[in-house]
Amino acid sequence: MPRYRFSEFILSPRRRVLVRNGRELPLIPRYFDLLVFLVERRSEAVHRREIFERIWVDVIVSDSALSQAIRTIRRVLEDDSREPRFVRTVSRHGYRFVFADVIEEEDEGDWQTERPAALVTTAMPEPEPAPDPFEPLLQRITRESSSPGDEEDQREAAELLHALGTSEAMRRLGTRPRHTFARALLRDTRWDAAEAGPVPILGEPSPVATASEIVGLRLRRAAAFAAARWAGASIGGGLAGATAGALGGIILASAPSSTATLDLAPVLAVIGGCCGAAGGAGVGAGLSIAESIARSRRALALICGASLGGGIVGFIAQWLGRWSLSTLVGVNVTTGGGIEGLVIGAAAGLGYSLSTLSAEGGLAAPRGRKRIRSVALTAAACGLAALALTLAGRPLVGGTIHTIAQASRGSQATLTPIARLVGEPDFGPLTAAVIGTGEGMLFGIGISIGLTRRV
Predict the structure, then answer these.
(1) CB-based contact 365:59 (threshold 8 Å)
(2) What interhelical angle do 179-189 and 134-142 show, nearest 10?
(3) Which CATH class is domain 3-105?
(4) What is the pLDDT of residue 150?
(5) What's the rounded mean pLDDT across residues 102-130?
């Protein structure tokens, strides 16, 4: 693996350092990888899509994340986007490393070919006081933004403040107008600035308002991707529910002692699909929103978000189901929904978070074996949660359908024939556990496939 020497810089992919005249320049890992990629491909203009596929291979990010990365690299190299020496923007395509005299050499020996000159001790005239570098940047991040360009300009100002000194920037910010937005911006950009220090929220002025600003900032940047993932989770949950319903109907119609016909399969598929889609929408919304706004304590945020989303949809479905059965057909049965949604949602969040621990800086999008692992862990977590619910006497969709069928006259949807196939004389805890675990696992498979689909 060679190192690259250009102008006064040395770039070492093996040692993962960028050095200028003997001094190491900080870059976060993804930005360092991007600079290496551009230098390696310096003979051509690299398309933005190729950059996303190479640098953000395990996550999904917006175009503004790439723009921010290029802006940071230019700042570290002291490059000018209007007259670039190193990185040029290729309109409607991508970027190209344009410095002509790049030397590839073995990554051995000293970093410098020349030693710095000895310090001169002769008397020098007193320099004029330098202007305050903080105040213009603080004014930029506290003003109202009216366009996406203004927002990117404010992010650049926040990154420059981190380079000057995060703690000093926070101290000087104080409680001037729009300080909550400025604190949120400093907090959000600290993940992309290698020089950044901590930006606490608790113990600082207006912590609730600052937290709200952070949520708004991150949701705006990830809104399109979060919506696509929510839709994917809903579709995946719906397909999983429809599959479970159709399989249940076919097995029930095929059971030796059953009076059900195959006409029951599409009916149960529709019911299962609707329930799965609703559950997937709730859990997917909670997961997508939590993943968009959480940069620290990601696992906890995903578990809580998925549980809350599943619980809300579950309680709505529970109320609507009881009301519809009672008022429309006069059947009064106890149906679940809310608790089940909370538990299954939390399990989905746990499985998904554990399988995407390495995802940073965007929405997780594992590929290949990593995606299979994510699907398997999420399915296992949802299956175990469903098993625990059924053992606690809280059946899922299949058990609820059996309860409603028993309370109705002439229904073909009682699951007693399936219970006999399992080895029970009637629908009992073993049958409920088998059916519930299968439902949970299929639901986990569906939403995890929908969530990890790259858009």
Answers:
(1) yes
(2) 110
(3) mainly alpha
(4) 82
(5) 61
The DSSP string of 50-109 is HHHHHHSTTEE--HHHHHHHHHHHHHHHT--SSS-SSEEEETTTEEEE--S--EEE-S-S
Burial degree of 324 (CB within 10 A; 0-12, 13-18, 19+)? exposed
Q: Could you tell me which of 19, 44, 173, 233 has the C-alpha nearest to residue 107?
A: 19
Q: Alpha-carbon distance 14 to 361, whole Å?
A: 23
Burial 203-234 (b: 16+ CB within 10 A, else e): ebeeeeebbebbeebbeebbeebbebbbbbbb
Count H helices, E strands: the chain? 14, 10
Is the distance from CB of 437 to CB of 390 less than 8 angstroms?
A: yes
| Whether 352 contacts 306, CB under 8 Å | yes
From the CB of residue 376, how many other CB atoms can be counted at a distance below 10 Å?
16
Residue 113 has pLDDT above 50, yes or no: no
pLDDT-based confidence at residue 116 (cuts at 50, 70, 90): very low
73-98 residue pLDDT tens:
999 999 988 899 999 999 889 999 99
**pLDDT digits over 206-255, tens only?**
899 999 999 998 888 888 888 888 899 999 999 999 999 999 889 988 88
| DSSP structure string for 178-231 | THHHHHHHHHHHGGG-TT------TTSSSHHHHHHHHHHHHHHHHHHHHHHHHH
pLDDT by residue (tens digit) across 418-431?
Answer: 888 888 888 888 98
Q: Which two tokens mark 51?
A: 């950059």
Neighbours of 149 (CB within 10 A): 9
pLDDT, tens digit, for every residue of 363-413?
Answer: 888 888 999 999 999 999 999 999 999 999 888 888 888 888 887 777 777
- Which two structure tokens, joined as six digits, stand for 99? 């410095």
pLDDT tier, 194 (very low <50, low <70, confident <90, very high otherwise): confident
Separation in Å, CA 57 to CA 203, 209, 226, 250, 331: 37, 34, 17, 41, 52
Domain boundaries, the chain: 3-105, 144-205, 222-451
- Which pLDDT score, from 0 to 100, does residue 297 have? 86
Burial 173-200 (b: 16+ CB within 10 A, else e): beeeeebbbbbbbbbbbbebbbbbeebe
Which tokens go with 212? Answer: 């709200």
Q: Which residues fall within 8 angstroms of residue 155, CB to CB, at 6 or more apart?
A: 68, 185, 189
Residue among 432, 401, 408 nearest 419 (CA): 432
| Neighbouring residues of 208: CB distance < 8 A, sequence distance ≥ 6 | none
